[in-house]
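thread: overnight batch results

M.L. [08:02]
morning all. the overnight job finished for the chain we discussed friday. pasting input first so we're all looking at the same thing
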Amino acid sequence: PDYAPANDRLGFIAMTFDGDLAAAARHYEQALAAEPANTDIIGNAASLAANLNRLDTSIALDEYANARDPVNPAGHVNLGLTYLGTGRFDQAIESLRTARRLAPEYSGLHYQLGIALLLKGEPEAALAEIQKEPEEVWKLLGLAIVDHTLGRAKDSAAAVTAIIGKYTADAPYNI
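M.L. [08:03]
and the structure it wrote out:
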């Protein structure tokens, strides 16, 4: 019960697979009590805070973890997504670009950065970023959205058709 990594994983399982955020919070509290400086645990606790719509807490935890582990791309992605959720587009883009510099092949990163650029009002930059996405499902999802925004209905529909044809079983929530 006092082993921080076990509580961290149990918290992740409770949050991600069981949907039991109260149990996840208890596990993260135990994990952080045992290892309060563990940046991986802090980052996972930040994800829990975001799931609880405590976005300011999530941002503070991710900023703390990233300051102590600045070369962890997942930390910058998580912070960027939380910034994106709060409408802080410039900060989201900056954080996602940091992650891209650290891990250019990170699955879904170019998609997320493209969406941030699109929401900021830069659809052409969004398209250029999404075209760099190495993971096909993320690339197709991004192209469907950006092409639609750019008024390219035929291209957008083709991307949606490809997603349905290839990823219905794997990513139905995106469709």
